[in-house]
């Protein structure tokens, strides 16, 4: 399989019949009859520079990501089917520290090779499109990167100069490309086929990367662009049109400017197959059970064969077509779709790899991998205050503060030029590492001084993506009431009551920055642990103010949060997916890294915007990590002292209310 690596697949695939006579040796091709041919369309999508199976934030190998692993699945398909084509669906250029290392440290001058392009060339990608993250580092960076590709890249709805209609635009890169191939049928006879690929990206790129796009490029509605360009592509005599749709599977009915337009796009006449992505989900699969306009059983999107191959190399998408020769062209007789994973996870969340890395792919970018390791271990900024979470559940906390600061900074930029510009921006963040089942060492603890990229994993455990929701003042209050379920009800005047509700996970204890408030623990919790109203008249949140004035229940606010919370995770008031006004393309981790890089020195001292309402004569006990004792004097607005040993290696502390 020397052709899989090191040389351009494009040259092989256009070499003519002699190079494809080998197809009859492959078992998959033998399933076709004379005049019929199987074509296996493989997809990678949303790689986000995940080339090695490595988590750079945690600084450790993992089995759930990496194009080097996906390459083993690709090689297996090529081994069993002579007629195959590999296409990438975008978002390859940014998304992990390797991408940031190239952009912010090494640079991407004309003539240099980007590691993701090196790896994609090595695997043998034969065509691709742009994702929204391709624009994160600017257009010059993008063009310099694409110049190294051994395969065509297409995008039909991004223009440097717009015409009267989309097909009159001067597009940033070619809108489509025709790949001339030869297919071997079931009898070993070779026939030509012309495959057209056309690409699309969410038009929201002009908002998400406004600083790079404004005055330089515009983005058209996906469906409108397809309706204009696909007939032109068809007019060039193609047999098959594959839409590379870097857009998710959203509503079935088209709306102008929609971000997730895969289903309406599939309805455009002339498109035969649709490859999707962007949403970091898997199709066919349970992610889309019951979704209108798609069929998991048949693998169709809007009635057309389609696939979505997860993210970070977690899956390889596969659309199998049985084609029949009719006259001088081809017709689709049948099809099937699947997303093949590189790992499996059992009921206990244990991961088992299903493939090994392909050494040629890993080796092709080994120098950049090592440079990235050096980069994540090297300081990218400084923190003027220690970042720790030992007391995040009893007082305003610096490890939560830095997350809120970064989220507010990011969303403030994203709201500029939108209908929501000028609305007050709040930020909701929770402590992820706060003991509990993780044990007495399961806390964030980053000392003051240099801060490295890998420290960000200590601040933000999960690969969530940033969101903004628009809520009312009344919903802000209930959001906080839901968070206040972290605490037991406390009796005034009684000593040493246990404070923390052991059934309440710390990741549901949202602190909302931008308002001030107190928590009255003498009140019962308004919501139970699952988010259902348990005590409708309860009011734990008191003295709630914005800008020094009592919070107006009817006022509107933008709250920065994450996709889990905004889409209903934890059952928080104001968060059911319907209040989302901004879906960021960036992970919350990336936002924190960018914030640190831009600030240089961060000073995330807790600002004390929340505290407990005083309860005369009451003290409470809680357990935290023993190392927290070194930070007792730093706690603002609360009197805390050591109170002996807790259970299972925890230390016990006393809080005076």
From TrEMBL:
Ranges where the Calcineurin-like phosphoesterase domain occurs: 39-280
Superkingdom of origin organism: Bacteria
Domain annotation 5'-Nucleotidase C-terminal: ranges: 444-573
Keywords (A to Z) from UniProt: Hydrolase, Metal-binding, Nucleotide-binding, Signal
UniProt xrefs under CDD domains: MPP_CpdB_N
NCBIfam families named among the record's database cross-references: PRK09420.1
Family: Belongs to the 5'-nucleotidase family.
Protein name: Bifunctional 2',3'-cyclic-nucleotide 2'-phosphodiesterase/3'-nucleotidase
Organism whose genome encodes this protein: Paracoccus fistulariae
